[in-house]
Design a protein that fits this description.
Laminin, two-stranded antiparallel ribbon, two-stranded antiparallel sheet, 1 helix, rod-shaped, disordered N terminus, repeat, EGF-like_CS, Schwann cell-specific EGF-like repeat autocrine factor
């Protein structure tokens, strides 16, 4: 009786199907970077047992030997793999699917992403595995949102743009360092704070307008 005509024809047909499938899969895997599992020419034992059982649709082909589905590997096909590998600390959840840490995105966590983006010309890059905005020389802050005034802003002034201070009332100058007096100081007096004069002797008064009397 032929190969498929006897009582064992069902078993033989299943054996042939598995072998052909294994050969096909092995040829496909040979052209990829995925785990190859069992090499060509393996022997399938229909009575084989694998303990613990093969996982993730793996097939037990010999005692304690599993043929793994694409994307899985390990003695019992218990490990999942992503190809290309997950980058920047990503974890492979299932074949081709990575779970990315904060600051990274894309199918394989290969894209660096900064929350809310980078402002004022900053660029998002990975620094020691952490997404960070790299700012141009005139800006700083986590998002490059803070301008830098090299001269500093004194007397409560705020740096609003590179090199430009916003001064509170009563102060002037590039660094908010010049006091403003609504009425000028007289007789050589100097405005040292808003509406306050420092007088030269023998003058005194709010504007140095009075001469000190001698007794």
């Amino acid at each position: 009786m032929g190969f498929f005509g006897g009582p064992g024809s069902a078993t033989a047909a299943l054996l042939l199907a598995v072998v052909l499938c294994g050969l096909c899969c092995s040829r496909c895997w040979a052209r990829s970077d995925a785990p190859r599992g069992v090499v060509l020419g393996f022997v399938f034992d229909p009575k084989a047992t694998c303990e613990p059982p093969c996982q993730h649709a793996g097939v037990c082909i010999r005692n304690d030997t599993c043929l793994c589905s694409r994307g899985y590997e390990g003695d019992n096909c218990q490990y999942v793999n992503c190809y290309p590998k997950c980058k920047n600390g990503g974890v492979c959840l299932r074949p081709g699917k990575c779970r990315c840490p904060a600051g990274f995105g894309g199918r394989y966590c290969h894209k660096v992403t900064c929350d809310d983006g980078c402002w004022n010309g900053g660029e998002c890059n990975a620094v020691n595995g952490v997404a960070k905005c790299i700012c141009p020389s005139s800006w700083t802050g986590s998002k490059c949102q803070e301008a830098i005034c090299p001269q500093g802003c004194r007397n409560g002034g705020l740096c609003m743009a590179p090199g430009i201070c916003s001064c509170p009332e009563g102060w002037l100058g590039g660094a908010c360092h010049i006091a403003e007096c609504a009425q000028p100081c007289l007789n050589g007096g100097k405005c040292i704070s808003p509406n306050k004069c420092r007088c030269r002797p023998p003058f005194l008064g709010p504007r140095c307008e009075e001469r000190k009397r001698r007794f």
